[in-house]
Design brief:
- With 115 residues, the chain is α+β, with helices and mostly antiparallel strands.
- The chain is 33% helix and 25% strand.
- It has helices spanning 56-71, 80-88, 98-110; strands at 5-9, 14-18, 24-33, 39-47.
- The protein has a four-stranded antiparallel beta sheet with strand order 1-2-3-4.
- The longest helix is centred in the middle third of the chain and has 16 residues, at 56-71.
- It is globular.
- The N and C termini lie far apart (28 Å).
């Protein structure tokens, strides 16, 4: 993978991978669940076609779990890519509480225009 910087734009709900010239080459779109407990909830992972196959999505997933660990909150993944990544990296990605996953799905249904 080339030199990629990862930036958390919490206000916009995006974890962004920046390539050469600060171009956004990939991102995870997420929201912060507040109830029944605080959690990071990734919904979509997107890598620009010209940058696929370079490990960017995996780096974004790893950083999302790193942020969650530093903040002491779980990740409740709804994004299919992050779910698969977490299954392959259980040492870095603890399993999500089913109640948090259900609450995250409820939140997403209640906010249909958000993603």
């Amino acid at each position: 993978m080339s030199d990629i910087e990862i930036r958390d734009d919490r206000t916009a709900g995006r974890l962004e991978a920046l390539g050469e010239g600060a171009e956004v080459v990939g991102r995870i779109e997420y929201f912060v669940l507040e109830s029944p407990a605080r959690a990071l909830v990734p919904v979509h992972t997107i890598v620009e076609p010209a940058h696929e196959g370079q490990g960017i999505a995996g780096s974004l997933a790893r950083e999302l779990y790193g942020i969650a660990a530093r903040e002491g909150v779980p990740v409740a993944p709804l994004c299919p890519y992050v779910v698969k990544w977490a299954a392959r990296h259980p040492e870095e990605a603890p399993s999500a509480d089913p109640a948090l996953l259900a609450a995250a799905k409820d939140w997403l249904r209640a906010h249909p225009g958000r993603f």
